[in-house]
Structure formats: C-alpha cells, structure tokens
Predict the structure of ATP synthase subunit I.
Amino acid sequence: MIKMLGSTVHSALKMPAGAAQAADEDFKPLTREEAKKLRELSPSLSPWWIVGGQFGVGVAVALIAWALTGRSIAAWSAFYGALAVAIPGALFARGLMSQFSSINAMTAGFGFFVWEAIKIASSVGMLFAAPRLVPDLDWLAMLIGLIVTLKVYWVALLMRPERKIA
C-alpha cells in the first residue's frame, strides 16, 4: 500500500475498504523471469533512435531545400531549423537516461519535467540565436526544417515496435 499525504492510495481513490484490502492481497510482484518476459513482449523504442532519425531528417530536408532552391543558405537554414529540434531532443534523451532520473518514480517524474523545460528553453534560445548564427537566414526554410523534424516524433510513435502476443 502506498502512503500519500497521510492517507493511502485506496482511500484517495474512494475504494471501499474491502475492495482495497482484496486488491492488496491479490497483488503479486513479478519474478525476474516474468519481468524479463514482459519486457520482451512489450519492447520499447530507444530515444536515441528518435534523435538519430531527427538528425537524418534534418540532413534530408537540407538537401531537398538545396536541390529545390539552388541556394546553400536555404539548406543551412533548413538544417539549423532541424538542429533546433534535434539538439534539445538529445539533451532531453540524455537527461532522461541518466542514473539520477531512474532512482525512483518521484525523481523520474520530476526529471521528466525539468529536462522538458530545458529542451523547450534550448529550442527557443536556438531560434532567437538563429539570425546571428546563420548569416542571411532564410526564415521559411528554417521553419520548414523545424516543422518537418518535429514530425519525427509522430512517425516514431506510428513505427514503434509492436507488442508480441504471448
């Protein structure tokens, strides 16, 4: 039973006392083998694959921008827009995969919000720095690179490994 601000989770959920006790008695922790089998049945996608996909899409968008416009500045602008998504995404993935973020559920939840805030702040900072870092910035190409790279999250969600049926 988990204590939550002096009361139990069951009372916070307004469960009848008998149902709460039955739920506690029915709970059985998984063995090492059962946990391993559960992980094999429900594989997860590494965040590093998503970050790598974002860098790959960024390169592709930059090459397409260069091919369509014939201007290298459009390619650099599109690539910078992709980097404004991929670099903060890499920071976020690194933060979530750190040992500190996996101490317990509370630090994992707190770490998620902290690293998400860092990701957003670094993206906004990169966008504000864009005119100084990319001479003759093509704003349209940069926004296209940014938006297309953001869509990698949705593609990764659709292409995640499928659950295996036991």
